[in-house]
Structures are given as structure tokens and as C-alpha cells.
Design a protein that fits this description.
It contains 18 helices and 14 strands. It has 3 domains: 92 residues, Arc Repressor Mutant, subunit A (Orthogonal Bundle), CATH 1.10.10; 224 residues, no CATH class; 127 residues, no CATH class. It has 505 residues and is of the alpha+beta class. Helix 6 crosses helix 11. The strands form 6 sheets. The chain has a 3-stranded antiparallel sheet, with helices on both faces. The chain is 42% helix and 11% strand. The longest helix has 33 residues. A hairpin with a 7-residue loop joins strand 4 and strand 5. The protein binds a DNA duplex (20 and 20 nucleotides) through helix 3, helix 4, helix 5, helix 11 and helix 13. This is B-block binding subunit of TFIIIC domain-containing protein. One of its GO terms (cellular component) is transcription factor TFIIIC complex. It comes from Triticum urartu (Red wild einkorn). One of its GO terms (molecular function) is DNA binding. InterPro entries: DUF7645, DUF7647, eWH_GTF3C1, Tfc3-like, Tfc3-like_eWH.
Length: 505
DNA sequence: CGCAGAGCGGTCTATAGCGG
DNA sequence: CCGCTATAGACCGCTCTGCG
């Protein structure tokens, strides 16, 4: 690169650009080059103007020393829009390969990160200079965020990011496989045959068009909205009136959606369609923007070893799983493998293998916590039943089991609720949480905050009569028997689909 | 206690408009 | 044609909050 651009003629002044290893580079970002020249010129007390650079590059391009192109990269906060980045290619570069586009995107990402982290460090330094010891000014304005989050969850939003990514990917795969002319062969039996066909290409599709066909219910689960949804969950997004659609697909929703797409991209399950965008602009909504990768792979993270063994991480063999996503069951198998490899990766180095090295989320157990994944129908039916039963009094254990079974709610998840006795006394308030509900248990409750309230949040406003009666004025503490709390908790278990472990006091 | 999500405040880029 | 300025849009780090 540098050889072709080693001499820059600007305002009759020669600039020599000399950079080690630059010869090996096939491209340079325009912003990178600009910053670089700016730094050089600063030493001379002058500033490089962008237009001057553009003119010079045009001249070099006409001479055939380089090629100036624009590469489209997706925005992080808006899945429907792309950002065009200016790239100067070495004249020897022919067609843009997907690898080169990847490198360009990576370089742009790194450039952004570097410049912004530099700016943030400068800001931090300034803050240190101006900070008044002991004075802490909160710049956060209290808002209705908790209410919004609550409303989103009430609409079925799944907190676990990887579960959202999984559901979204399964939807996209199903969408793409139904596209006319799609090369995903349905119901293939012969491995050799589909391998041959799938080698041909990764099916192209328009992300915007795919999302338009997304069921509202799925949208509420994976993207989320705080909007009150009535009689719309059976529809797909494109069937919604514009106003409703815009309310669902607000800036934040687009941001959340874009982050999911970004993760699918980093998992190499999706690829940005490699189109060279000309000066005239951006492709339309109907044009293919992404391709579905049908041959993804997963590497098992390498087991952690004791330092004494002195074995280099790089020299241990990696176990690799290759998939051919020709059938729904293979898509399921991909996700099960990914979850298994990384969720159980307690004694492994997630960063040692793909995709753990590029998607940190895959190795966070919280990202996979599917405890509260329920369809809206399940959620509403559960609310209805619990309300009905609770009007009649206490809910016996067997009824909880019946509800869980009939609504197909899982009881088989990780233990999350733990009741145990306090070190000395058996009576204390649990972390002020019960206090906030104006009642307390008569024994130790060591459940996390969310567990202590989440289950009654699930069943509706104010607890649907399941809560012990509100204590009268002055009656701040109420003693409950273990059986009371067990019963209540088992409803929670049904509602949340988690285990309850009881540690005898 | 650590993580994830979201808002804020900041920087950077692209662009348009203006005057020299 | 050139350079300056204002503005919008994008997106990061920091921070706070709630969850598990």
C-alpha cells in the first residue's frame, strides 16, 4: 500500500508516507489515512483538510495507483441501515473477497474503538482535574425504566440474550428455507448430496423483509416492547397498522434487534451480503442484505489446566463440530451443542475457541437462562389459573404440578431458590425485600431478590391473592410456617419453571 | 457480587451552506 | 475551488440499576 502511496503531492509539497509492514496491507481506511496525515502535518503546524485528501486520492486513482471504494457495514443501533466506509485499495487488489470485507469491517471497528477509547481516556483525565472530592453529581435522571422493563417482561421478553439469539436465528432459518428458490433442501437424507448442494451458496435474503414476516409474539420475546399488546400476537409485523408497527419498532427495539443480528454475524451464522455500494446510495428494503450461513462450526473450548503442567494452550487439540443446516433438527443440534459446550464450560477457557473468542456472551450462563421463557398464551393461562385457584384459598402442591404439566411449563431447570437457616437466629428480614412488601417471613429466606418477588409479579398486579394478607397497621412482622412458604414457592416454581431446593434447618 | 441493559455525555464523521 | 462552521447521526465508555 505504502509503495503506491508513498509520495503524496499536496499544495506543491511532498509528503512521504513510510510505514513498516504497510507493504503487506491491501487496503487502508480513508479515516485512518486522514488521521495519519493529520498527525504528520501537526508536526509542521498545519492541518490536513479532508477535501484535499479526497482530491489527492482521486488523482492517484486516475493514475491507477489505487482504488477508492465504499464498503457497506451494518450499524450497531439500527439493523435497517448500513454505514458506508471509504476504503483505499491497493491497485493490485482485484475483486473484493468476503475475507477482505471482513478485514475491512474489523479494521473500521478497531479504528472506532481506538479513537473513542482515546477520547474517553482524555475525558476521564479532565474529570480527575475538575472533580471536587466528596461531591458526587448524578447525571442520571430518574425515569420510568423499571416500569418499561417490567412491561417488556410482561409481554414475554426473554432476558437471556443467547436464548433470544437462538430463537431469532431459528426464525430466520425457517424464513429463508421457505423462500422461493432457496437452496436449503428440505428433508434431505443423503449427506453427500446436500453437502454438494449446500456448497454452492449461502442463500441471500433481505433482513428487513424477514423481520416484516416475524410473528408479533416472537418479536415480543426476542426484541421486546413495553407497549400493551391486544389481539395482535397472532399476526406478523407486516400485518400491523403503521402506527402500531412504529410503536413496536422504536429506536431501542431496533438497537436490541441489531445487537442480535450482530451476534449472529459474529457466530458466523449470518453474513452481510457483500455488495459494493456505489455513490448513488443504499440498496432498497427488498434487496438481499444478508446471507444465511448453512455450514457453521463450533470449537469446544480448551480445558483449563494447572499452571504446573506447562502445556501451551495453542498446542492442545481443538475439538470442532461442523454442521450442515439442511434440516430444522440440525439447526436445533447446532444450538444444543453451542449451549452445551459453553454453558458447561466451567473449567475451560471460553476465549480459546470459536465462537467463544468472538462472542463473549456464549460463555455467560445468564445468557442461556431460559427459566422464564413462556409463550404469551402460557403466561396468560397461568395468570388466569392462579387467579382462579387463589380465590379459593391455598394452592396445594399437586395443583401446582397439574398447572405446570397442563401448561407445559418446565420444572427442570437449575436450582435457583435456596432456603436456609441463618447462622444464629431463625427470624430476620431478608435483605429488606420482604419489608418492602410490608410483610416478612418468620424464618430465613435467602432467595435472591428477583426470586422473592418475581413469581408474584408473574401472576399479575398485586399478587392475585396468593400473598399472605397485608398486615394491619402496626403489624409489621407476620410469622409463617415453612409449609406456607413452600406452597407459595411451589407456585413460583411452576410459574418460573425452576427447581426449589430446601435445606433443612 | 458480577453481569447485562440502558441512558448520558462525549467524540468523530459526513454533509450542507456560506463567504473569500 | 477552498476552507470554515453548524448540524445530524453514529456509537463508544462510563455509570447506574436491576437481576440472578
Amino acid at each position: 500500500m505504502a509503495s503506491s502511496m508513498s509520495c503524496f503531492n499536496k499544495n506543491h509539497q511532498n509528503f512521504t508516507i513510510n510505514c513498516k509492514n504497510e507493504q503487506k496491507k491491501k487496503f487502508v481506511l480513508k479515516v485512518e489515512l486522514h488521521k495519519w496525515l493529520e498527525r504528520l502535518e501537526k508536526e509542521n503546524g498545519k492541518m490536513m483538510d479532508r477535501k484535499t485528501l479526497a482530491r489527492t486520492l482521486n488523482k492517484l486513482q486516475q493514475e491507477g495507483s489505487c482504488k477508492c471504494i465504499k464498503v457497506s457495514v451494518p450499524l450497531v443501533t439500527n439493523y435497517t441501515r448500513n454505514r458506508l466506509i471509504d476504503v483505499i485499495l491497493h491497485s493490485s487488489v482485484g475483486d473484493l473477497s468476503p475475507e477482505l470485507v471482513d478485514q475491512i469491517r474489523m479494521r473500521q471497528r478497531n479504528f472506532d474503538t481506538e479513537t473513542r477509547s482515546g477520547a474517553a481516556a482524555k475525558l476521564k483525565q479532565n474529570q480527575h482535574k475538575t472533580a471536587i472530592p466528596g461531591l458526587r453529581i448524578s447525571r442520571r435522571i430518574k425515569d420510568n425504566k423499571p416500569l418499561i422493563i417490567e412491561a417488556m417482561h410482561a409481554n414475554g421478553f426473554i432476558g437471556a440474550k443467547m436464548i433470544r439469539v437462538k430463537l431469532f436465528h431459528k426464525f430466520l432459518w425457517a424464513y429463508v428455507s421457505c423462500l422461493p428458490g432457496c437452496c436449503i433442501p428440505a428433508g434431505y437424507a443423503e449427506e453427500g448430496q446436500h453437502t454438494k448442494d449446500l456448497n454452492q451458496s449461502s442463500p441471500l435474503f433481505s433482513m428487513a423483509a424477514a423481520i416484516n414476516e416475524m410473528p408479533v409474539e416472537l418479536f415480543l420475546q426476542v426484541v421486546g416492547s413495553a407497549k400493551k399488546i391486544d389481539n395482535m400476537i397472532t399476526k406478523v409485523l407486516s400485518e400491523l397498522p403503521t402506527e402500531e408497527y412504529n410503536q413496536l419498532m422504536d429506536t431501542h427495539a431496533k438497537g436490541r434487534l441489531s445487537r442480535l443480528i450482530n451476534i449472529l454475524d459474529k457466530l458466523k451464522l449470518l453474513q452481510l451480503a457483500n455488495e459494493l455500494v456505489d455513490e448513488s446510495g443504499v440498496p432498497s428494503d427488498a434487496a438481499p442484505t444478508h446471507s444465511m450461513e448453512l455450514r457453521p462450526y463450533i470449537e469446544e473450548p480448551i480445558r483449563r489446566i494447572l499452571p504446573s503442567s506447562h502445556v501451551n494452550l495453542n498446542h492442545r487439540p481443538k475439538i470442532r463440530h461442523d454442521f450442515v443446516l439442511s434440516k430444522q433438527e440440525f439447526v436445533d443440534a447446532y444450538w444444543e451443542t453451542l449451549e452445551y459446550c459453553y454453558l458447561t464450560a466451567g473449567l475451560t477457557e471460553p476465549l480459546s475457541a470459536f465462537p467463544g473468542c468472538s462472542v463473549p456472551e456464549v460463555s455467560h450462563p445468564r445468557s442461556w437462562s431460559s427459566r422464564r421463557v413462556m409463550t404469551i398464551e402460557q403466561r396468560r393461562e397461568l395468570q388466569k389459573r392462579i387467579r382462579k385457584i387463589s380465590e379459593e384459598g391455598r394452592i396445594p402442591f399437586k395443583d401446582c404440578l397439574v398447572i405446570a404439566k397442563e401448561l407445559n411449563l418446565s420444572l427442570e431447570q437449575n436450582p435457583q431458590i435456596t432456603y436456609r437457616s441463618p447462622p444464629k437466629t431463625k427470624s430476620y428480614l431478608a435483605a429488606g425485600e420482604m419489608e418492602s412488601h410490608k410483610w416478612s417471613s418468620g424464618f430465613a429466606v435467602n432467595a435472591p431478590r428477583w426470586q422473592q418477588k418475581r413469581w408474584w409479579e408473574l401472576v399479575g398486579d398485586g399478587g392475585c391473592g396468593l400473598l399472605p394478607p397485608e398486615p394491619k397497621t402496626g403489624m409489621r412482622k407476620k410469622q409463617f410456617m415453612m409449609s406456607d412458604v413452600l406452597e407459595i414457592s411451589l407456585v413460583a416454581v411452576s410459574a418460573t419453571g425452576c427447581h426449589l431446593s430446601v435445606i433443612p434447618t
